[in-house]
Amino acid sequence: VGKHASVASSASASANNSSEDDNASFLDSLFYMLSLSQQSNILKTPRTFIFDSGSNGNFCCNPSILREIKGSSGSITGVTGEAENINQGMLPLFGKTISTPNSGISGISDKSCIDLKLKVDYVQGEQIEVSIDDSTKLIFEYDQSTSLYCCEFTDEVLRNLERVEKGKKNTCLISTVKEN
Fold first, then answer.
1. What is the pLDDT along the chain (180 residues), one digit of tens a residue?
2. Coil, strand or helix at 58
3. Using a CB cutoff of 8 Å and minimum separation of 24, what contacts does 12-15 make?
4. Helix, strand, or coil here: 115?
5. Which terminal Cβ of the chain has fewer Cβ within 10 Å, N or C?
6. Are 157 and 42 spatial neighbours (Cβ–Cβ below 8 Å)?
């Protein structure tokens, strides 16, 4: 296949538009590869996010980045740990995100990028580029010490995600049909 790959998004519905009734299934299905029970020191800063191709939900160890945080009765399971009654918040553009303050890691799932129909370009061992819109890209650079692809979610990045999110919410299609 070669060193370069591109993922085209084709999912038709976003988890971010789901009703409150499916919160439990969202939480129960969230899976990531690091321990929930041990503090991890792999992040450069509390705003470092990894690109997680093994997760089907977003997670954040820095609750100050999230909006509308509320408790939930669901649970999440990782390879070496499980946590129950997790808080959930909203990450700009990406939507539902689990607050995992004791995990020491934050991540954007490949699934959320597919659900949002974002273009993802992957260069193995170098970077993953997520195209948010024509002027905004998230660059997850490869970190050799952890073998993870990392991106800093600075204030500027968060503002751009909010800008794109607001633009998407204000978009609608209206169609009328004149009777014959």
1. 333 333 333 222 333 344 445 554 444 444 433 443 344 455 678 899 999 988 888 988 888 899 998 877 666 666 546 666 678 899 999 998 988 777 778 899 999 999 999 999 999 999 999 999 988 999 999 988 888 899 999 999 999 999 999 887 544 555 556 665
2. strand
3. 13/115, 14/95, 14/112, 14/115, 14/116, 15/57, 15/95, 15/96, 15/111, 15/112, 15/115
4. helix
5. C
6. no
Using alpha carbons, select from 135, 91, 133 the residue that is nearest to residue 109. 91
Taking the C-alpha atoms of residue 83 and residue 163, their distance in angstroms, rounded to an integer, is 33
Q: Which two tokens stand for residue 111?
A: 């699934």
Q: In this structure, are residues 94 and 51 in contact, taking their beta carbons and an 8 Å threshold?
A: no
**Number of DSSP helices (H) and strands (E) in the chain, helices first:** 3, 14
Residue 3 to residues 6, 113, 122, 123, 133, Cα–Cα distance (Å): 10, 21, 8, 6, 24
Record the tokens describing residue 28, joined without a space: 């129960």
Q: Which residue has the tokens 């191709």?
A: 53
The letter for the amino acid at 127 is: Q
CB burial string 125-140: b at 16+ within 10 A, e below: eebbbbebeeebebeb
Both structure tokens of 143: 């970190």
